[in-house]
Design brief:
Layout (H helix, E strand, L loop, with lengths): L1 H9 L2 H6 L22 E9 L2 E8 L5 E5 L6 H15 L4 E4 L8 H9 L3 E4 L9 H20 L5 H13 L10 H6 L16 H35 L13 E5 L12 E9 L3 E5 L4 E4 L31 H9 L1
Parallel strand pairs: 1-4, 4-5
Antiparallel strand pairs: 1-2, 2-3, 6-7, 7-8, 8-9
GO molecular function: nucleic acid binding
GO biological process, one term: DNA integration
InterPro entries: Integrase_cat-core, Retrovirus_Pol_polyprotein, RNaseH-like_sf, RNaseH_sf
Length: 332
């Protein structure tokens, strides 16, 4: 009887759609490749404060960042023009990571990336972890902007952002132990290559400089990679491997619009077309790519003690009782 009640509750479609998920999945983080030199990987996003919008860009290796003021009526063409300004100043990157916003996910920008052989990666909706470098930049910029606003209350948002970016790029970063400005420009010393004594040959100076750059870039790559591994190992201690969703199985996806209404269903039922590891491709009502952190974990049954009347042995069911059934049974 207990198994039947548990099975009925866990398969109640109305409960899955309407109830809160008391134990949402906490999926383990994956280690992403670490760039080996500046401008290999860029992260982009839009940032807004005081009703003023900016395009923000950060280089994953050097942590060098820029912010470009956007018009109040921001269009994909406006964002694209500012991206071109960054590329014209600093060069073509190997890959770019952005969210799925229309500012980036449009034919204008995607065709530009194809033309210049730039790998374009869009993060999964409602999952900002893939674009974490730009999210951390936004957090740092907010701190700097608050300080500058108190110290210089008469400055407009555009001027505040310019000063915040300057302060960020000229400060020593906690991971690289270098200033972003120095790494992006290869500025390792203040020696002028044209102000050399007769004993120093220019070609030798350039070769030595190149070797020093390689040495520093390699050290920063190793330090950044070790830093990422250390953080991921610590955070994954309290996380779990993603659940598996066979093709054709049901999935209940969190409805991000439900937060604005207390009576709106919390989840939307959909069907899994393909399991992609940490993501699934769904069809029907919620069509597209969904991160598994936005999907309810599949419900399971429990191991029960021996049933003397039916003769069932303990452990005949291999999974754990979900909290929903225990709570309901304790109230009855």
């Amino acid at each position: 009887m207990q198994k039947m009640v548990t099975e009925y509750i866990n398969n109640c479609e109305l409960c899955q759609v309407a109830k809160y998920d008391r134990h949402p999945p906490k999926i383990k983080f994956s280690l992403t490749p670490t760039p080996k030199q500046p401008l290999e990987v860029l992260h982009m996003d839009t940032f807004q404060f005081s009703n003023t919008k900016f395009l923000t860009v950060i280089d994953s290796f050097s942590k060098y960042a820029q912010a470009y003021h956007l018009d109040p009526v921001c269009t994909a063409a406006t964002v694209y023009e500012n991206i071109l300004i960054f590329v014209n100043h600093h060069g073509i990157p190997q890959s770019v990571t952005t969210d799925n916003g229309r500012e980036f996910n449009n034919s204008l920008f995607t065709e530009f990336c194809k033309l210049h052989k730039i790998q374009l990666h869009f993060t999964t909706p409602c999952n900002s972890n893939s674009n974490s470098p730009i999210e951390r930049l936004h957090s740092t910029l907010l701190e700097l902007l608050r300080i500058l606003k108190i110290k210089f209350p008469k400055l407009c948002p555009k001027e505040l952002m310019q000063n915040a970016i300057l302060a960020y790029n000229t400060s020593i970063h906690s991971v690289t132990k270098q200033r972003p400005f120095d790494l992006i420009n290869g500025r390792l010393d203040v020696l002028d290559p044209f102000d050399l004594s007769d004993e120093i040959i220019v070609s030798q100076f350039i070769d030595d400089r190149r070797e020093r750059l390689k040495f520093i870039y390699n050290n920063i790559h190793q330090a950044t990679d070790a830093h990422k591994k250390n953080i991921i190992e610590k955070r994954n201690k309290t996380r779990e491997d993603p659940s598996k969703f066979p093709q054709g199985s049901k999935a209940y996806v969190k409805d991000k619009t439900a937060s604005g209404s207390k009576l709106k269903p919390r989840f939307t039922k959909t069907e899994v077309k393909k399991d992609l590891g940490t993501k699934v491709w769904t069809i029907n009502k919620r069509k597209g790519l969904v991160h598994k952190s936005q999907i309810q974990k599949p419900k399971a049954f429990s191991s029960f003690p021996q049933d003397h009347e039916s003769g069932n042995q303990e452990g005949s069911y291999s999974h754990s009782i979900p909290s929903t059934s225990r709570d309901n049974q304790s109230q009855q």
